[in-house]
Amino acid sequence: MKCYFKMMGTAALAFSVFATATGLAAEPAFKQGDIFLDLGIGAGKPGGAAINAAKDTTFYQLEAIFNLSSSLADRRTLGLAQLAGLKSPTASSVSGRLGFEDGVNDIFGFGVSLNSAKAKVNPVFVSNFESFGILSFLGTTFCSALTCPSQAPSVFEYLSLNSGPAETKAFNTLDFDFSFHVFTTDVYDPYIRITVGLGKIDDTNLAKAGLAFGTRYMVSDSVYVMGEISGSAYSIVLSASESASGSSETVDAITNNELRLG
Q: 9, exposed or middle or buried, with CB in 10 Å at 0-12, 13-18, 19+?
């Protein structure tokens, strides 16, 4: 499978930076014919298979223990440095959303939105057990000339190569939003929104499903603030040529939980 993480030298909280509504009457806050426009940015807490794999330090710890058992003093020093620098990775995400919603009737709304999200794990510990299946930096005693550099890196060079933050490429989707507004008053517009979407991460197809609970508060006839909690699940859609099995398949990628304010 393709690797969607890149090493780089940076539940969810999101802020809608601008929100307007047109065609709104003073009462109720949501009714047939109303049009809403949301523009927001946010941060969240991601999870799922890809995030859990990036946070896994099992192989890194095994490599550190292997180094500690080495007869070479520099390998033992490296093992101590690896264990001393080991800490629990954390995951975070940032996202942006531009959404449009139309009041189909006084209860049901339909809209489309453009969404982009990235997830980050910090730090990610990469082991040569994972890279080569053997300890490629331990010297010719432990690996062949094909996998070992001509001169082993220093402890600090090694650590800089094998740990650090990693960020996914952008999960970009076009979403179709179905919302239900059942307890609307003249100023409050509580809603439930169901989302399905399609998109891309790099050149690979994505599928998305999401659910949100929130409310709008009308500041005036044309301006509102909002708050919502939401959860989304992204899956990677692999073609037959991309899949290891030789047939098309859908692979769970990440989940993202958010609290959005705007």
A: exposed
Q: What are 145-161's pLDDT values in tens digits? A: 334 444 555 666 666 66
- Residue 100: pLDDT band by 50, 70, 90 thresholds? very high
Tens digit of pLDDT for each residue in 102-159?
Answer: 999 999 999 999 999 999 998 888 776 555 443 333 343 334 333 444 455 566 666 6
| Predicted confidence (pLDDT) at residue 81 exceeds the cutoff of 50 | yes
Per-residue model confidence (pLDDT) at position 17: 37
Q: How far, in Å, CA of 10 to CA of 101, rounded?
A: 33
Mind spelling out the 3-state secondary structure of the chain?
A: CCCCEEECCCCEEEEEEEEEEECCCCCCCCCCCCEEEEEEEEEEEEECHHHHHHHCCHHHHHHHHHHHCCCCHHHHHHHHHHHHCCCCCEEEEEEEEEEEEEECCCCEEEEEEEEEEEEEEEEEECCHHHHHCCCCCCCCCCCCCCCCCCCCCCHHHHHHHHEEEEEECCEEEEEEEEEECCCCCCCEEEEEEEEEEEEEECCEEEEEEEEEEEEEEECCCCEEEEEEEEEEEEEEEECCCCCCCCCCEEEEEEEEEEEEEC
